[in-house]
Design brief:
elongated, 219 residues, mainly alpha
Length: 219
């Protein structure tokens, strides 16, 4: 719970930092961010690695947003970086909550026949169950890990499913964002975004957010 609150607070701080940068508008900030990533690529990878690890220890639904932003700047390879974080964080959650006693598990969910049936199916079809948890687009990584541990999936099924399917979403979303970045007509995204009206719309949204924050600070 505390870690989730810290992640949320850091996200807000990051947004406020973005809004307070010296560049006058959204697209100038975007270009500045791309230049920084190009100059400090390894540091950017390390930031994604560490941030994603702690993020995947919580149920905060920010993993997809993180990899879309990172993929836009760093390309498909950053999906593999986030996958490493996912495996490490998933192992921590699974091992902490792992239920090894089938009798204790049955007693725990005896009042909920549907859960008991899911648990039994999950244990019998552990690898498939683990893969489906990883591929489901609305299931955060932490929820997938905790579900697997709660239902008593064995280590081979859990780690096998995580390794076989856990990379799909990070690499897929990073690649999607990278393809979007490649739609720019030049190495500098600014002309393309200006032509499409993205700069003006984003700058207006930023201004509205800034005004809302200022109002809250005065109240």
């Amino acid at each position: 719970m505390r870690l989730g609150l810290i992640i949320a607070a850091l996200s807000v701080i990051g947004m406020l930092t973005w809004l307070s940068l010296a560049q006058p508008d959204f697209c100038s900030r975007l270009t500045g961010a791309q230049n920084w990533v190009n100059d400090y690529r390894l540091i950017a990878y390390l930031i994604v690695l560490v941030w994603s690890f702690f993020l995947f220890l919580t149920i905060m639904p920010l993993g997809t947003t993180t990899i879309l932003i990172a993929g836009f700047f760093l390309g498909p390879s950053v999906g593999a970086v986030q996958f490493v974080s996912l495996v490490a964080a998933s192992a921590v959650l699974y091992e902490i909550g792992r239920e090894k006693d089938e009798a204790a598990l049955a007693k725990r969910v005896a009042q909920y026949p549907a859960l008991l049936k899911i648990a039994e199916t999950g244990r019998k079809r552990g690898l498939i169950f683990s893969i489906l948890l990883r591929l489901a687009p609305v299931v955060p990584s932490a929820v997938a890990s905790l579900t697997a541990s709660f239902f008593g999936l064995g280590r081979p099924a859990f780690y096998g499913g995580t390794l076989l399917a856990g990379w799909v979403r990070p690499v897929g979303f990073a690649t999607l964002a990278w393809f979007a970045a490649q739609s720019f007509t030049s190495d500098d995204p600014l002309p393309f975004l200006q032509e499409k009206g993205v700069c003006a719309s984003a700058s207006v949204s930023e201004a509205q957010i800034g005004n809302n924050i200022a109002t809250l600070q005065r109240s």
